[in-house]
Amino acid sequence: MKIFPFLVVLLTGGLLIYGTGEMPKWGDPHSPASLHVSPRYIERTVEETATPDMVTSVLADYRGYDTLGETTVIFTAGLSCLLLLRKDRE
Amino acid sequence: MIVPYENVIIKTICRLLLPFLQIYAIYVLMHGHYSPGGGFQGGVMMGASFILLVIAYGLDDAQRRISVKALTIYACLGLFIYSGIGALALLMGGNYLDYGTLPLPLSSIPKIRAMGILGIEIGVFLGVMAIMIFIFLAIASYETGGKDD
């Protein structure tokens, strides 16, 4: 019966590899992501956020929701570690 | 159980290194606007400095200096600062996490946005620092709990 999961994995992997053929080339200047979002960040980061480091302004300002989610993930990981592993000391 | 390393070289180097590590962590946090760095990186460095303390001085000695209750407060405070700045922007009439509307006495909106970024980075810093020490202490003290039973 092990042959069926193997076939499913093979099929899914094959489909994924087939799908990557349609993706834009790595660093292609004409891909959709490079045409709209990136130029806006590169050109207007300093005048909109007064932050010379583009990475910081994208991480904390333009993509603030993402970073809030990341912080929540770390917070949840710490809380579950505390709940599962820690024993109260007598 | 992590016992103290009975070696004067390791203890002295650790004691000399700690303040510089922590100042560098705060520098990485505060300089995130101008160079690589920010809340996550600075917080991990700050957490690593306390983990170094635990490794060099042993778990018992370090747990007298680091209280888990304070760490819990720091972790919650970090997330609270982050979401609180977002909610404050909402209260002042902007979108959630839209720092431009924060009530700060600065001359222009971009400068207010930069301060908003710094505020949430401080929140991330506190949260990441507390959680790093948290996870390390939880895993390190779990072993002793099992041995005592």
Question: What do these coordinates show?
Answer:
The complex is a heterodimer of chains A (90) and B (149). Chain A is an all-alpha fold and 90 residues long. Chain A has a domain at 29-90. In chain A, 74% of the residues lie in helices and 0% in strands. Chain A contains four helices and no strands. Chain A is flat, with a radius of gyration of 22 Å. Chain A starts with a helix and ends in a 5-residue tail after the last helix. The mean pLDDT of chain A is 87. With 149 residues, chain B is an all-alpha fold. Chain B has one domain. Helix content of chain B is 76%, strand content 0%. Chain B has five helices and no strands. Chain B has helices spanning 8-30, 39-57, 59-65, 68-91, 109-148. The longest helix of chain B has 40 residues, at 109-148. The two termini of chain B are 14 Å apart. Chains A and B meet through helix 2, helix 3 and helix 4 of A and helix 4 and helix 5 of B.
Helix content of chain B: over 70%
Low-confidence stretches of chain A: none
Uncertain runs of chain B are 145-149
Mean pLDDT over the residues of chain A: 87
Largest sheet of chain A: none
- Multimerization state: heterodimer
CA-based gyration radius of chain B = 19 Å
- End-to-end distance of chain B, in Å? 14 Å
Instruction: Determine the number of helices of chain B (DSSP H or I, runs of at least 4 residues).
Output: 5
Number of strands of chain B: 0
| Residue share in β-strands of chain A | under 5%
Shape of chain B: elongated
Hey, which two chains have the biggest interface?
A: A-B, 31 and 42 residues
Shape of chain A: flat
The helix-and-strand class of chain B reads mainly alpha
What is the percentage of strand-forming residues of chain B? Answer: under 5%
Describe the structure concisely:
With 90 residues, chain A is mainly α.
Which terms summarize this structure?
heterodimer, A: 90 residues, mainly alpha, 4 helices, 0% strand, flat, B: 149 residues, 5 helices, disordered C terminus
